[in-house]
Amino acid sequence: MIKVLGHRGVRQHKTFDENSVPAFDIAFKDSDGIETDAVVSSDKTVFLCHELRSFNIPHLFSRSTSALKRHLNRASAKLAGDRRVDQMTAAEVGKLQLKKNAPFASLAALFTLAAGHPGKTINIELKGHGALEPTLAEIDKAVAAGKITRDQIILTSFDHGSIAKAKQLAPEIKRGLIFARQDLRDKRMYPWLKGNLSRYDHLSGRTLRGKTAQDAAPDYFVMTGGALNARAIATIRRYFPQAKIMIWTMKDPARDKGLEKKLNDPAIAPHIDTIISDFPDRMVKYLKNKGLRP
To answer: How many CA within 13 A on the CB side of residue 162?
Structure first.
């Protein structure tokens, strides 16, 4: 059975903001769980926002930038100014509202919601620099309070060094490596940090046999649906034969011809464990109609 996770809850919902508690609630009800993005305030409180984005001019220029303001309503964008989440205290971040006026969600609030949806998968992408340890601390609190179990959590990141560190600090929690487009390969992830060596990696044999990937020992490989092909699968299976493959797509499944082609390909479809979708309810129905879910 191919599992379905709601991308940032329900990313393209008409009423609810992505990465908001209402969006997570819908995805928990309609699918197998959620995917979200962890960033940290200056005082190390974990919030949920897809703040980091890549600015790309093909073959000319690529770099990561902060995109906080594009997620906020007008008043909150003015309040935040040009600051990133890690440049604000938790109290300051707590005053912000998203585009459709939902409160800026914290990881603690997500875990409180998850207590009402036992067993659902929670895929946390470590998006902000330094997000790992605060995220692990929040997981420990939620587990101790009986809100979640560690088995529900998957930690993923483009920052493969963070995932390797997660293997050291919390080896019982499942981990996944996310892979960037070829044009982002070796680009700095946080260019505003002096001396920071975190860089994007493209899926290749060189990357997978390297020390960082080997130390991370990933349970999952995460990539766009467009990047998944027979060659990528063979590379993954050569170095990590037991790892599962997770893809994400932002398209309505009924109109996603690329996804349909892959699901109809017997060399690719059996290797897809999970789909992260902007439309989790539609994706579940679509896979059921194709006989890929009970």
So the answer is: 28
- Beta bridge mates, 52: 66
How many other C-beta atoms lie within 10 A of the C-beta of residue 246?
24
**Residue 253 has which token pair?**
């499944």
pTM for the full predicted model: 0.96
d(Cα 277, Cα 4) in Å, to the nearest integer?
A: 7
Given CA atoms 174, 271, 269, 255 in this order, what sign does their dihedral have?
Answer: positive
Burial class (CB in 10 A: 0-12, 13-18, 19+), 146: exposed
106 beta partners: 47
**281 contacts 30 by C-beta, under 8 angstroms:** yes
> CA-CA distance, 122 to 201, in Å (whole number)?
24
User: What is the three-class DSSP state of 253?
Assistant: helix
3, two tokens: 């599992």
C-alpha 144/C-alpha 137 separation (Å) is: 11
Q: Per residue in 69-108, pLDDT tens?
A: 999 999 999 999 999 999 999 999 999 999 999 999 999 9
Q: How far is CA 158 from CA 73, 80, 102, 242, 288, in A?
A: 28, 26, 27, 20, 31
Terminal Cα-to-Cα distance of the chain (whole angstroms): 7
Alpha-carbon span 160 to 173, nearest angstrom: 15
pLDDT digits (tens, 9 = 90+) for 160-195: 999 999 999 999 999 999 998 777 778 889 988 888
Q: Is 195 left (phi over 0), alpha (psi -120 to 50) or beta?
A: left
Tell me the C-alpha distance between 290 and 186, whole Å.
39
